[in-house]
UniProtKB/TrEMBL annotation:
Superkingdom: Eukaryota
UniProt domain Protein N-terminal glutamine amidohydrolase alpha beta roll: residue ranges: 12-92
Protein keywords: Hydrolase
Name of the top EC class for this enzyme: hydrolase
Species the sequence originates in: Rhizophagus irregularis
Protein name, UniProt field: Protein N-terminal glutamine amidohydrolase
EC number: 3.5.1.122
GO cellular component: cytosol; nucleus
Amino acid sequence: MLPDFSDKKLIYTSCYCEENIYHLCKELDVIKNEIDIYVCFISNENLTVPLWKQRASKYSDGMIIWINVYDLDTTLSFPCDFSTYTQESFKVLNIPQYYR
């Protein structure tokens, strides 16, 4: 089970996802013998992946082109289970091929 983190307890800088994940992994290192921990970078050839439920978005549905998964920028619960995260953050819509 993951520790009960809140944004205020973690090193966080808006829009610096790789650095935020690096610091998160350093925090999770203390429980590495209890659970398997993975970091997954999702991208495409254009380095653009649309996600929803994001604080940095300017849109009411939270859509933004973003590049991280264990997500300090989500408006969903933190931590959030993978099933809920993928259903809420990755929408199947008619979006331009460039973002796929």
